C-alpha cells in the first residue's frame, strides 16, 4: 500500500525531542515495514493563521503535492497530530484534491479554543480538518470523548499508545554498575525523574519532585534522587535542589536508547506530568519495572493504573504526592509488586507492535473501500 505521511506540527527530522515526535516517528517506522511510505512535506504549520507568509507556502505545497501525485495517486493520506496551533489544512485539502481517503491520527477537538479571538481561527480550521477526515484515530481516551461531540463513533477509533517493550527492560548489570558508581548501598533507594528542563510545566514538574524530596530529607529519609534532562532551566533547578546536597545527581541529557539502563538502576519513577498530554516516559519507566508516582489529572492517568502500577494523586493536593513517595519507599514488597505489575501492564496493553497492527488493518480497510 502506498501511503502519504505528514506531520503538520513538527517534521519527522525535527531536532527537539518530544513525546509527540516519538509517537509520530513510531507510526512511520512501524508502517514502513509493510507499506511504501512517502513524507508529503516538511512544512511546519504551527500558527499558520498568524503568519501570512506561511499561508502562501502552504498553498504552494498543496499545488506541488497534487501535481506530483495526480498521475500515480497514493492509496491513503495519513497525517499525525492536528490541533488548533497546527491544523492539518495540507492533508485535508491535498487528499480531497487527489480523491483518496484521509485518515488523521491524533486529531484533537477542544471547544475552549473558540472562546478567545487569538485562537478562534485555529479552532475553526482544525474543526474543518476533523470534519474532512474519513477517520480520526486517537491514543487518548479523553480526546476520544471530546471528539464524540463533533464526529459519529463510526469515524473514530481509539488505539492505545505503545512502545517497544524489548527496548525498555530491567537490566541487572546496568543496575549494579550505575548504583556502584553513584555510591548507593545494596538496600539504598534510588528515585528517578526525567524531563526537558525548559521554562514551562516540565521544569515546574521537576521542581515539585525536588520539593517533595527536600521534605523527605528534612524528615530523615535516605535516598538518592537522579534527574535526567537538560535545558535552559538547568542552573535554576540545580540551585533549587541545593538543600538536597549529596542526595541528588543531575545526569544531563541521556539518549532514549540508553535510558533503560538508568531506569533499571532506580526503585521508583516520579514526575507530576502537569498538563502532560500523554507522557511516553511513563510507559518506558513501567516497562523497566518501575512503579510511577504522578498526578492523575492529565496524561499519567492514561498510562498508569492507580494502586496497581503506581500511585496517582491530584495536582490540587501536592502534599499527597509526597505522601505517596514516602509510602512506597517504606513498603518494599508493595513497591516491588507494583513494579512487576507495571512490566506486565506495558507488555499486555502498550506493546506498539500489537497496537499498531490495528492501525495497519484499518488502513487496509479504507484502501479496499476506496478501490471498490
Automatic annotation (TrEMBL):
The keyword Repeat does not apply. GO terms for molecular function: glycosyltransferase activity. This is Related to glycosyl transferase. InterPro entries: Glyco_trans_1, Glycosyltransferase_grp1. Pfam families: Glycos_transf_1. Residues 176-344 form the Glycosyl transferase family domain. The keyword Ribosomal protein does not apply. Keywords: Transferase. It comes from Desulfotalea psychrophila (strain LSv54 / DSM 12343). It comes from the Bacteria.
Amino acid at each position: 500500500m502506498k501511503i502519504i505521511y505528514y506531520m503538520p506540527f513538527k517534521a519527522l527530522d525535527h531536532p527537539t525531542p518530544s513525546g509527540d515526535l516519538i509517537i509520530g516517528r513510531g507510526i512511520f517506522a512501524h508502517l514502513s515495514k509493510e507499506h511504501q511510505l512517502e513524507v508529503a512535506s516538511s512544512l511546519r504549520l504551527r500558527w499558520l493563521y498568524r503568519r501570512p507568509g506561511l499561508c502562501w507556502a502552504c498553498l504552494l505545497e498543496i499545488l506541488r503535492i497534487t501535481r506530483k501525485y495526480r498521475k500515480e495517486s497514493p492509496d491513503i493520506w495519513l497525517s499525525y497530530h492536528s490541533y488548533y496551533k497546527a491544523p492539518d489544512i495540507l492533508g485535508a485539502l491535498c487528499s480531497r484534491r487527489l480523491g483518496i481517503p484521509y485518515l488523521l491520527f491524533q486529531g484533537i477537538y477542544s471547544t475552549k479554543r473558540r472562546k478567545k479571538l487569538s485562537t478562534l481561527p485555529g479552532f475553526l480550521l482544525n474543526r474543518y480538518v476533523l470534519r474532512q477526515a474519513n477517520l480520526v484515530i486517537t491514543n487518548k481516551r479523553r480526546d476520544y470523548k471530546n471528539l464524540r461531540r463533533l464526529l459519529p463513533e463510526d469515524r473514530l477509533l481509539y488505539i492505545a499508545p505503545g512502545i517497544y517493550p524489548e527496548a525498555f527492560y530491567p537490566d541487572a548489570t546496568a543496575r549494579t554498575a550505575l548504583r556502584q558508581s553513584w555510591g548507593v548501598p545494596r538496600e539504598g533507594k534510588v528515585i528517578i525523574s526525567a524531563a526537558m528542563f525548559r521554562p514551562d510545566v516540565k521544569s515546574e514538574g521537576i521542581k515539585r519532585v525536588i520539593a517533595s524530596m527536600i521534605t523527605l530529607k528534612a524528615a530523615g529519609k535516605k535516598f538518592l534522587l537522579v534527574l535526567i534532562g537538560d535545558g535552559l532551566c538547568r542552573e535554576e533547578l540545580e540551585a533549587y535542589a541545593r538543600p538536597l546536597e549529596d542526595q541528588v545527581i543531575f545526569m544531563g541529557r541521556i539518549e532514549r536508547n540508553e535510558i533503560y539502563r538508568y531506569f533499571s538502576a532506580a526503585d521508583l519513577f516520579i514526575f507530576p506530568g502537569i498538563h502532560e498530554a500523554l507522557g511516553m516516559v511513563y510507559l518506558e519507566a513501567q516497562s523497566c519495572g518501575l512503579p510511577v508516582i504522578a498526578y492523575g489529572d492529565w496524561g499519567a492517568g492514561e498510562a498508569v493504573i492507580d494502586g496497581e502500577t503506581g500511585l496517582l494523586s491530584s495536582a490540587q493536593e501536592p502534599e499527597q504526592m509526597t505522601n505517596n513517595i514516602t509510602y512506597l519507599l517504606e513498603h518494599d514488597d508493595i513497591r516491588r509488586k507494583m513494579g512487576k505489575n507495571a512490566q506486565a501492564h506495558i507488555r499486555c496493553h502498550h506493546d506498539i507492535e500489537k497496537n499498531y497492527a490495528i492501525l495497519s488493518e484499518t488502513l487496509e480497510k479504507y484502501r479496499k473501500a476506496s478501490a471498490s
